[in-house]
Every structure is written in structure tokens, then in C-alpha cells.
Amino acid sequence: MKYKRIKIRSIRNKEEAVAGIVVAVMIVGLVLAVISIVQTIYIPKWMESREAEHMGVVSGQFSQLKFAVDSQVALKEDVPISSSITLGSRELGFFMSNKAFGRLALITNGWAYRISRTPGDNYEDTFGILRYTSENSYYLNQAYNYEIGGIVLNQSQGAVFCIEPEFSAAYNTSNRVVDLSLTCIDLQPSDEKTSITGYGTYPVRTEYMTATNITMDAVESMTVITQFPAIWFNFLNTTLSDANLQNTSEYTITKSANEVTVTFLYTQLTNVYLDLNKITILTEINPGWVD
Predict the structure, then answer these.
(1) C-alpha angle 180/265/121, rounded to 5°?
(2) What's the CA gap between 70 and 277, in Å, rounded?
(3) Please, which pLDDT band fits residue 96 given cuts at 50, 70 and 90?
(4) Is the pLDDT confidence value at 253 over 90?
């Protein structure tokens, strides 16, 4: 009987050991299942929310950049100001995820206009712009353009002015004279570094340089050369219409792949004056810091 009791106790110990292993395997499997669910369902949502929040930060930073440049233009003093732009966001440290990157670039010929006058002479000029392009992994990609003083948001659904540029129109119906005013900010690079890519925060240094003014009369047409003809078409047409100018009878407006042209009809108008203001801002993208 003693031998049999020892044998039964030995079998019971083995059964308890096997049961412990099974429980451990089940716990590990449960943990892996939870991690897998979090990784495949929740992490993309968290990262998408983080990238969307980052795009909101970039929008605010471009607004701050415009405020800084507007302040420099108003003061007309060559005092440099730095505005920060955050290119991307970091990944989560405890789960598998991807960083969001971005690119910031100064484009020297990013926007232009062409003015034609009835005597037959043309006036053309080009302007530098600042463009941020996102490289998101979860949220839709967006691009922000600082374009002659306005801010354009471009994404897959289309483009829109976040802040409109400075263009105005006034129409004197008694003498049929049109007064137009256009102010253009020209961002010119101050060194050879015109772009940067990454996910950190980088300062954009701006400094007021010069301002010029030209007033023209007998303006026959004004052509805007831009990457966003649709929003410029609506902006120019709305501005002229709000000034009580009649489309098709006092002016026509057309657009193509990269141009918008407003033509003034002198069968109804006496004269069209255009006040052109150009402000040159030296711009430098500096190495920054990583978040």
C-alpha cells in the first residue's frame, strides 16, 4: 500500500504541472490576442488622430508666420523674426507605428502675374512662396502654401483659401472707372538652403527687405499664374462682383490648367487702374530641433 500511495502522488504532481503550463499558455495567448486587437484596430485610430492634430498645429503655425510677416511689412524694419513649423509627428513608443514626416520648401517661382495694357505693353513678375507638404502614414495628406500673403490649404478634396491675399476692387459707376489694388509678398531665400525634410520643428527666419509700388492705368487684362486656378477664379470673380462689376458685360474671367485671366471690357468701362505693391521678404529655413 505504501508503494501505491507514492505512485498516486507522483501522477497527481504531473497533472498539476501540466495544468499550470496550459493556464500559462492560455494567459500568453490572451495577452497576444489583446495586443493584436489593439495593434490592428486602435493604434491606426490613435495615430490618425495624432496626425490630424499635427495638421492643425501646422495650420496655426502658418497663421503665425503670416502674422510675423505682416508685422514686418507694417513696421518696415529689417528686424528678423523666426516662426516655427513642425514637419511631422513621432510614432508611439510602446506599439508598432510609423512616424509622420513633412517637407518644407521655398519655391522661388511659385506664383506670377501678367498685366496687359491697352497701349500694347505687358508687365510680368514672379514671386517666391513657402510650401509645406505632409507625408502622413494614417491621416490624409495636406499641403499648406504661403502664397503672396495668402494661405492655401490643398488636399485630395480640393484647395481652399485659409487666409485670402490682399486684392481689392472699387468701381465708380458714375464715371465707370475701376480701381484695383494688389499686394504681393515675395519670399526670397537668403541662402542656398531652400528645403528641409523630417519630423522635427524647424524655425523659418524672415526679414523685411524692400517694398515697391507701381500704379498703372488702361489695364486691359490681368493674368494670375498659380497651381490653384480654381480658388483664384472664385476669389477674383467674387471680389469684382462685390464691387458691382458685371460679369460678361464689364469684364470676363477665364481659367486654364494653371492660369486665371480677367479681361476688362472697354466698351462699358472708361478706365481701369491697378495699384501694384511688391514686398520682398528674405526667408531662411534653419536647422531646428527634434520633438
Answers:
(1) 70
(2) 14
(3) low
(4) yes
Residue 82: pLDDT above 50? yes
Question: Do residues 276 and 214 lie in contact, with contact meaning Cβ atoms separated by under 8 Å?
Answer: yes
- Over residues 216-238, the mean pLDDT reads 96
Q: Using CA atoms, how far apart are residues 117 and 223, in angstroms rounded to an integer?
A: 12
45: phi then psi, degrees, rounded to nearest 5 = -70, -45
**β-strand partners of 273:** 179
Q: How many CB atoms lie within 10 A of CB 130?
A: 27
Which residue in this structure is represented by grid cell 477674383?
Answer: 236
CA atoms of 134 and 51, how far apart (whole Å): 10
Residue type, 8: I
Q: Whole-angstrom Cα distance, residue 86 to residue 60?
A: 10
pLDDT at 54: 86
> Could you tell me which of 216, 225, 217 has the C-alpha nearest to residue 266?
217
Q: Compute φ and ψ for 180, nearest 5 degrees.
A: -110, 150
φ, ψ of residue 151 in degrees (nearest 5) = -125, 125
Cell of 72: 514686418
Helix, strand, coil distribution of the chain in percent, nearest 5: 30, 45, 25
Residue 81: DSSP 8-state: E
State the DSSP code for 42.
I
Q: What pLDDT sits at residue 228?
A: 96
